[in-house]
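Now for one protein, fold included:
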Amino acid sequence: MPLNTLSLKDLEFHLNDMLHVDRLCDRERFRDHDMDVFQAVLETAGKIAGDLFEPHNRKADLNEPTFDGKTVHIIPEVKEALDAYIEAGFIGIQHDYEVGGMQMPTSIAMSCSAIFNSANVGTSGYPFLTIGASNVLRAYGSDEQKKRFMEPMVEGRFFGTMCLSEPQAGSSLSDIKTQAVKQEDGTYRITGNKMWISAGEHELSENIVHLVLAKIPGGPPGVKGISLFIVPKFLVNDDRSLGERNDVSLAGLNHKMGYRGTTNTLLNFGENEGAVGYLIGEEHKGLFYMFHMMNEARIGVGLGAVSLGYAGYLYSLDYAKNRPQGRHPDGKDPNEPQRMLIEHADIKRLLLSQKAAVEGALALCLYAADLVDDEKTSTDEQTRKDASLLLDTLTPVVKSWPSEFCLEANKHAIQILGGYGYTRDYPVEQYYRDNRLNPIHEGTHGIQGLDLLGRKVVMNNGAGFKLVASRISETIDAAMKVEGLAPFAHTLSVSLEKIGETTQKVGVELAKGNVNLALANATPYLDMLGHLIIGWQWLRMAIVAREKLENGTTADADFLNGKILACQYFYRYEMPRIPVWADLVGSIDETTFNATEEFF
């Protein structure tokens, strides 16, 4: 069945017209590919997602996994979908040919991820985590570890997880208690508990490879003493066959409001003699290694939020086109036929708000994915350095802005459906519940704000912010020369200058040592900078759309004019929020800082 949860046309616009991914085919790693291959991969993803993922999205939500004390039970459609996913090679989409991978660019892999997430984020969670874990092993695992654990993951025989949080330590990883004691044979015995572990137990694969953060006794305190270990559900023999069950057990399933198709677990390591673990890389560098997985995962979380927002937008758009409801304010004759919802100005506002959020955030996430490709495969050293710095600076925004504002888009989708919107007869309420998890996944919205304002925009004398600003300024200069876009370019320029001044004011407070006060409004700063970045993306899209229209691209005129209209909406309805945020953050407002618990 056709994919109805994401626009493949929009994906093609970003990949072909915005990012020009065909240029990647000139690079050594992607030389065997061309645009026909990329298109075929996207179409295959769309077909599998439409045929096997989307049809059981509701069923998996209504029939979440259960645990009978021995085995986790999951509806059979999940495995059927994942088997097709594996057979098509998507788990190894970015891995080398030598290990059975497809050696595709990150931008293509992320586009496929968006397709599957939009169709069924619960089922997509299993390969999403497996891909992330296999990428860590590809980057930091030994040759033996890659052979024993990574290659079976690429084959789809083993799945993977990331085990960070503990019952007493969620985001505060310096407070984890899981320990790893070295043995004479070079392995470690892992003991402790891990909470909120997605895909932590199931029967969907032969084995589960847990990547576990733990502390080695005698190591440095805090995060500097954290190491990373491979802890498989089943031990693996030299020939990659399965050995005995490791000392890893499921203590129970957590029941979340969304992502119900993905098991979420409390795992106990070492209830008996200790779970066998294998050190990745060097001792005490675990957080550095895991952040490799987490940074790519953060782009994935942002893109997942986009996908769910997009699914809700498309469903509410179709509903609005086909649902008669009410009359215009000047329609006083009750005998006149009702108007379709989409004819009402406020419904158009809700649709434009969704469109501006999801398409703008999609542009940002794919821009970030393209930066990953430049960082890893460009032959130009400066291009690689710039891509790395841009990624480091923008990743908190890439993760968090879509998670907040594409969730807002899901709220608008429910509103358009009215009373039907919050019933389970329609999918928009599930999209909202599923998406509500993303502001928490991979670092909460507040933590991303602290990272952005406390580190990313001020590090190295603001080098990252300056580079982002220079790229935005290039777009402003280009837009000034395009008919109808100069007012938007002016707004973006004023906003950029205002945020630059605000960032400097916070930097002064940080330099004085007033860290807690200076970062008290880090979250509004994140929202503000995020709006600037999305406004930048919309101006980039409007430039391309206008150029294509001027070059006589009439077949897609409605699509392209829709881009320009959504840009206009974002600049007139959303960009005015920036100076309000800037005034608040730049004043080093003390309201939240001075609120003591007695005031509540």
In short: The chain has a mean pLDDT of 96. The first strand starts at residue 66 and ends at 67. Residues 286-322 form the longest helix (37 residues). The chain is about 55% helix and 10% strand.
